[in-house]
UniProtKB/TrEMBL annotation:
GO molecular function, one term: anti-sigma factor antagonist activity
Name of the protein: Anti-sigma factor antagonist
Domain of life per record: Bacteria
Pfam families per record: STAS_2 (PF13466)
Length: 107
């Protein structure tokens, strides 16, 4: 897993899972704390995430809200869109362009 960018936009790549959760949490919290306005997470290079990784995203979302910011997901891969819909988190998280629930393949 890697995260590159600044306090306004981060690109998250690789696997966001139990092994990378602590490093990801530190990077995301630092970006939230050091910036203002929306924090955009570009997920176009993310290969996969598990429940722990999703928990890191939700934690950053809550932290951003407490800091008067908004966490925005950009370029969410289709398999991760399905997980957001299945967990109904697509209704809570800000997703650039939204998720076309009807266009997602059924699993």
């Amino acid at each position: 897993m890697y995260i590159r960018g600044d306090h306004a936009e981060l690109v998250v790549g690789g696997r966001l899972d139990v092994r990378s959760a602590a490093d990801a949490r530190t990077a995301l919290h630092s970006a939230v704390d050091d910036g203002v306005g929306d924090l955009v997470l570009d997920l176009s290079e993310l290969d996969s995430w598990d429940a722990t990784g999703l928990g890191v995203i939700m934690g950053a979302h809550r932290r951003a809200g407490r800091c008067g910011r908004r966490l925005v997901l950009r370029c969410v891969p289709p398999q991760m869109q399905r997980l957001l819909v299945a967990t109904r988190l697509h209704r809570i998280l800000a997703i650039e362009g939204g998720i076309g629930v009807d266009s997602l393949p059924r699993v």
